[in-house]
Amino acid sequence: MMNSNNSSIRSSREIPRRIVLIFIGLGFLGFLDSLYLTIEHYLGAEVVCTIVEGCNEVLQSKYAIIFGIPLSLVGVGYYTAVILLSFAFLDTKAIFFMRAMGILTSFGFLFSIVFVSLQQFVLHAYCIYCLGSALISTILFLFSAILYMRYIRLKSRSTNDQA
Amino acid sequence: MKHILIWGVAGVLLAGGVVGLLLLAPPSKNSNSSAYLAAAVSSADHAKGNRDAKIVLVEYGDFQCPACALYEPVVEQLEEDYGDRMTFIYRHFPLRNVHAQADLAAQASEAAALQGRFWEMHDLLYQNQNEWAKNDKAEEIFVGYAVSLGLDKERFSQDMNSDAVKTKVENDFQGGVKSGVNGTPNFYLNGKKIENPGSYDEFKQLLNQELERNS
Question: What order do you get walking across the sheet with B55-61 strand by strand?
Fold first, then answer.
């Protein structure tokens, strides 16, 4: 699994640790957000709605559960993966984990677009926790994109150097 | 050593999050299920049925909310089945942030109320929600409903935008906020907030329990 050849190690040094810490921080926020909804789902409680109204409309809609699994639980899995990948990278410095992060957060971003659109165009109701999660996913994706572009730039520079 | 430290932090973070939330989550459930109607039922409320009935059902609704429109026939069936044994009160809780016409629709119903036709307008608004909900010309449509109900058109248009009517809607809304309304529809059975029943039969069961308790 661990990709630790020389070129990976070299490029992994170019990933600032603070960006990984941002991944962990955002991942933890998202983790708490979706975990709260999951707990409330299984306790059968109504969620405390603030700022925007209609979160119970959203959370009790048919889109809130896919194949019998509440979406919030999928969110918990997603953010747990973000956190574990970040720690795995801090531990091993293997670039593989950041590549996986790029793919994961791209999917997270795409799904967020779908979920926000559902709230806006189909349900006409919003849930602050879902919007929060979409925002976190978007920022995670942006940081992944920044890392990716940085990686491409460094890679092309090192190929130029070699040439 | 470094490995242990890194994964130790990861473990503490995740486990801490789970434990922390589990400790915090139950109170939010309790505070919700024990919400009480803060604004007492008064003669200013729109009521249907017997004012002295043992069951008082208060709904906080938004005419533009799809879920409220779904509950409308359910409530109507309850009114029919319980007749004199129940009072049904409707209060406004327009979700302004998400429903552009919710306020105006509430005002339209209040303007109709000034000519004694609140419930007729209430029914029309819910039945035809799709027609006006996303329509910039909702106001014209409301005037059309007023005309179809035989109301004085000029007076209705004036009342719909009058301060008195706006204040009435706002008072309902503020009463709802105080009572812990956090979405629509929210129902209060004899002053106590209930979870929205999933079906007509569940609703009926709640009302029957309440009747038994008070008999």
Answer: B46-49, B86-92, B55-61, B186-189, B192-194
pLDDT band at A2 (very low <50, low <70, confident <90, very high): very low
- Mutation test of the interface with chain A: which of B68, B182, B199, choosing the one with the most A Cβ atoms within 10 A? B182
- Asked if residue B3 is part of any domain, the answer here is no
Give me the residue from A40, A52, A126 closest to B25, CB to CB. Answer: A40
Residue B27 belongs to a domain: no
Q: CA B97, CA B107: separation in Å to the nearest integer?
A: 17
Q: Decide which of B2 and A88 is more confident.
A: A88
**Residue B186 is part of a domain; what is its CATH number?**
3.40.30.10
Domains of chain A: 16-154 (1.20.1440.130)
DSSP 8-state secondary structure symbol assigned to residue A121: I
- Angstroms from A52 CA to nearest CA on chain B: 7
Task: Please give the tally of structural domains in chain B.
Answer: 1
ipTM: 0.71
Chain B residues in contact with A40 by the CB 8 A cut-off are 25, 28-29
